[in-house]
Amino acid sequence: MTNVSDPGRVAGSGPGRGADAAMTVTAVVLDALALAVVGLLAFVTLLGDSWPGATEQSGDSRAALTGLAGVGAVAVLAALSAAFLRRRRLPGSARVQVIVAALCALATVAGAALEARDEGPVPVPVSDDGGPGGACLSGGDNDECRGSGG
């Protein structure tokens, strides 16, 4: 038994292509809004250091962690919505949500890797004149100091 409005579709087989396309657009718009909110939260966190009562932790680090956690949450929600949409027989929407989830997960992992690399130990500057403290080698007079003209 076929449906007259869509000759290739069997009656009772789920929503049509129009519903799938509409749900795809709706889901992508909701994903974009969620990512915009995450970006806004990260920006507000970055500005938080200039507010009274700000903590000692770097605003850049907190903003990065806020953004990473938010993008990771969007990835999880997109994956869950992909499973829901697949069960509702909306395969096109489900595929797009899988792509969104994969991209968000990739961005989260890449951002975490960059953040971990950036937080490495800070090297101690060493001057080229023999030591970290000054130009004199033995603490003597100017004859023993490099670059002092003596």
Quick tags:
single chain; elongated; mainly alpha; 150 residues
Question: Please, could you describe this protein's structure?
Answer:
- It is a single chain.
- By secondary structure, the chain is an all-alpha fold.
- The protein has three helices and no strands.
- It has helices at residues 17-47, 59-87, 91-118.
- α1 runs antiparallel to α2 and α2 (59-87) runs antiparallel to α3.
- 18% of the residues are buried.
- The mean pLDDT is 77.
β-strand number: 0
What Rg do the Cα atoms give? 29 Å
The portion of residues assigned to helices is 55-70%
Strand content: under 5%
Q: What general form does the structure show?
A: elongated
Provide a compact summary of the structure.
The chain has 150 residues and is mostly helical. 59% of the residues lie in helices and 0% in strands. The protein is elongated and about 95 Å long.
Element layout with pairings:
Blueprint lengths: L16 H31 L11 H29 L3 H28 L32
